[in-house]
Structure to design on (152 residues):
């Protein structure tokens, strides 16, 4: 099913644009940051470990309020993970919040609704960020790029 995409393109340009616009909209209401990282295969057995590695590699722990979130997806392996920095993890509701967000994304991915699932997940995570870290003009706006990061 994913073989419809060219090797270097995991998502069509329209889907990429839709996801990036969702990130921009979510971040407009918060000081938090959301990144999406996609690759065909997960290098580890556990997608959460890969998400943690990428979080560090992308410098996401360097945000001023420590409220960044990464959504990691390995499309061909059908794995994903949500990882939030220390300040947002507990404030959003701890493990139950993250399990709920993951369950909703799982439902979309099972139906092959990758872009829709990611956009909905971004919206949900963005709402949590906006609740606990509302927009503050004193904090540098858009500390991290909004573009989707694609791995090999």
């Amino acid at each position: 099913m994913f073989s419809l995409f060219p090797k270097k393109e995991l998502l069509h340009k329209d889907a990429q644009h839709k996801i990036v616009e969702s990130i921009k909209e979510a971040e407009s209401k918060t000081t938090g940051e959301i990144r999406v990282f996609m690759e065909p295969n997960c290098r580890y057995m556990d997608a959460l470990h890969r998400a943690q590695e990428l979080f560090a590699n992308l410098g996401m722990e360097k945000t001023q309020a420590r409220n960044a979130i990464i959504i990691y997806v390995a499309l061909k392996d059908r794995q994903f993970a949500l990882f939030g920095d220390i300040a947002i993890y507990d404030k959003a509701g701890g493990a139950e919040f993250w399990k709920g967000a993951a369950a909703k994304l799982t439902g979309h991915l099972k139906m092959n609704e990758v872009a829709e699932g990611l956009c909905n997940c971004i919206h949900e995570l963005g709402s949590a960020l906006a609740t606990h870290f509302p927009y503050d003009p004193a904090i540098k706006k858009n500390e991290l790029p909004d573009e989707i990061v694609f791995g090999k």
